[in-house]
Amino acid sequence: MAEKILMKGNEALAEGAVRAGCRFFAGYPITPQNEVPEYMSWRMPEVGGSFIQAESEVAAINMLYGASATGIRTMTSSSSPGISLKQEGISYCAGADLPIFFANVVRGGPGLGNIAAGQGDYFQSTRGGGHGDYYTIVMAPNCVEEMGNFPRRCYELAEKYRVPAMILADAILGQMMEPVEFDFELVDPKTLKAPDWALGIAAGRERRIVRSYDLREGKLELLNLERMERYRKIQEKETLHENRQTDDAKLVVAAYGTSSRIAAGAVKMARDKGMKVGLFRPITLWPFPAKALAAIAEHVKNFLVVEMSMGQFVEDVRLSVCGTARVDLYARPAGVPSADEVFTEIEKVYQGIR
Amino acid sequence: MYQGIRISGFGGQGIISAGILLAQAGMIENKHVSWFPAYGAEMRGGTANCSVVVSSDEVASPIVARPDTVIVMNEPSLAKFEPMLKPGGLLIINSSLVNSKPQRSDIRVAYVTCNKIAEEIGTTKIANMVALGAFMGLTGALGVEAISKALPKVFKRAKPELLELNVQALKKGAETKIS
What we know:
A: alpha/beta, Rossmann fold, 2 domains, 14 strands, B: alpha/beta, Pyruvate-ferredoxin Oxidoreductase, domain 3, about 35% helix
C-alpha cells in the first residue's frame, strides 16, 4: 500500500494521530517524548488543526477536556511524571465520557527517575490511573510501525465506548527508528459523524451538557453502572493479543511492549536449541486478554513473565491463569534486558520443568 | 544475516546521521533495520553514539550491547566501546583522531585515516562517510548503491554536489583493507 518510511517512534505516533484525524494537540515538553509535540507544532498547522504548548501538563489535559467535548479528535502526550500530573484531568474525562487519546512514553521511575526506558507505569495505566472508578483503553505497541498505526484504533474504540484511550510506549519505542508502513487511509475529520453528545451551537436542538459530576441523589451510581456495562463490553469484545509458537510449548514467555520484542528474540534462540518455548504478548493491556491466556494455560503449565518493572504485569498473568500454571518472573525495574539475558532466564526455568 | 553496529564519536562528527543512513540503506535493501541513539544529557562537543541493526530477521533489541562492528571516530570512544565488541568482531578506527591502540587480540582492526581522506576529497565533514565506506567494504553487509540511494532521503536539503562528495568518500572508504 503506502511506501515504507524510516521514522522515529515518537514521530510515527504523532503522524499516526494526525492521519487518524486528530486536529487538536496540547502538550508540555518532557524527555523522552519531545519529538511528539515538536512534530505536532508544525504538522497541526499544516492540516488546519491546533497545536498548543500549554503552560503545564495540568493545563494541557484540561484543554483536551474542552476540545474533546466539542466532538473532535484530540491528543496529548507526556512521559511518566508528566502523565501523573495529567491524571486528575484524565479522571475528569473518564467521568465526563470524553473519548480523549493520549500517549505515555514511559521513562524510568519512580519520581523523576531517568530518561531511559521502563515499564513501571503498568498499574497506573491499567487500573484507571487517577482517582475514582474508571478504566482507560491501553494499547501497547512493540515497534515503530505499531506506534504509527495504533492511534487510529484508539480513536475508534474511545469514540465507540466513550472512554479515554491511550498508548503505553516507552523511551526505546519513542526514540528508535524503524521502517513504517501506515495500514490505513488518511482520515478526513470532516467525514466523521459528529457525536450526538458533542457541544457546539445549540440552536434548534436540546441543550447538551458535558460534565463529570452529578449531585442528584443516586444518579451517580446509575451513571457508573451504565459505564461499568460499557467496560464489560470492551472486555468481552476488544482484547488483542499475539501468540507465537504456543501450541506445542512447555514454557510460554509473557511480555508486552519493548520487553515482548526482546523476549521474541530470546524465544527464537530457545527454539533454535530445540526447546519448546512460545510467546504470549498482550496488545491491549486493558482490556487484558485474560481468556486467550487462560486458553494457553489449559495445556501450558509454565510461564515466564518478562517486564521492565518489579512485578506489575505479572499480576494480570497470574490472575488470568488463576493458579493452573506456575508463573515465574524476570523483573528488570527500569533496566532493559538483552535477548541473551532473557534466554538465560528461559534456560533456568526450562531446566526445572519435568 | 545479522549486523549489530555501534558508531561513536564527538557530537558534530555526523555519528547520528551516519547511523540513520545505514538504517535507511538497510531498509532500501529490504532488510529489517533499527536505529537507536544515545540520548542522555548530551552537550555540544560531547560524545555521541548510536546503535544500528541490519538483519534478515526481526530485530529483537535495538540496543546493541554486543556489536559485530564498532566504528570509533574519536579517542574516548575506543576505551568505551572496544570491550563491548564480540570476539572476532570488526573495529574500525578513525586513525586521524585516535592515537591509542586497541587492547584486545581477538578482534579484527581496520585503521582508516577518515579525516585525512575526507579532506583530500574536499571536506572533513564527510569523514563519517569514509568510515561507513570502510564498514561496507569490509563486511559486505550493505552495498554502496543502497547508501547512495539513502543519501538524499536522509539529507533532504543537501546540495547535489555535497551528496556527490559523500558518495566519493564512501567509495574511497570501501577500498580499506585490514593490514
